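so my prof wants the structure for this chain in the tokens format not the other one, which i didnt know existed until like an hour ago. anyway here's the sequence
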Amino acid sequence: MATLHLGTALLRPRSAFTAIAADPPSGSRVFFGAGLWLALCPPVFAYVGTTLFGWRLGVEPLLLSPGTAAVVSGAYFVLLLFGLLSAAFVAHWMAGTYGADTSFAHSLGLMTLVALPLAIGSVVHLYPNAFFNVMVLVPTLMWSMYLLYSGLPVVLKTDAGRGMLMASALIAYLLVSWVTLLGITAVLWSLGLGPRIST
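here's what i got, hopefully its the right format
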């Protein structure tokens, strides 16, 4: 994780972006050294919070059995890894169009740093109150978007105008993916494939 300058990214993100642009680690080192562990944080926090306290949505706490919570957390982990890797692949694919660096290691390093605030903010899953989670995760999402817009031109070595357009295209891809996932989840739950919830 030190290779990706994650600590520097929290306090001086510009320095972290410049360091990765100048000397990017390999894609496998980024994934196994940082990306994998950052993606593991939200599911672990969600599992602990769900099994200990249950989700609070304004009514009685909604509880999942430990087995069901483990399955849901495992699916959460797989989807986060897919989101990280697919966003890096999409950035890699778009790079030529926007005159940016086409190195996959650069794209994966950038997306890993962009995901850092969300991974840290996911600690609120330990207390799974819907209002509290929204109040914390919305600012961390804005922080991640700031990192994407400010870091993309530096890491992928393109001008600010093209960087803004490319970052906006990446956000559009992520939003479409998220809405698609919500739709798939709603269909599966309507077919009776969702977790069993008790109060």
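also thought this was worth mentioning. The radius of gyration is 18 Å.
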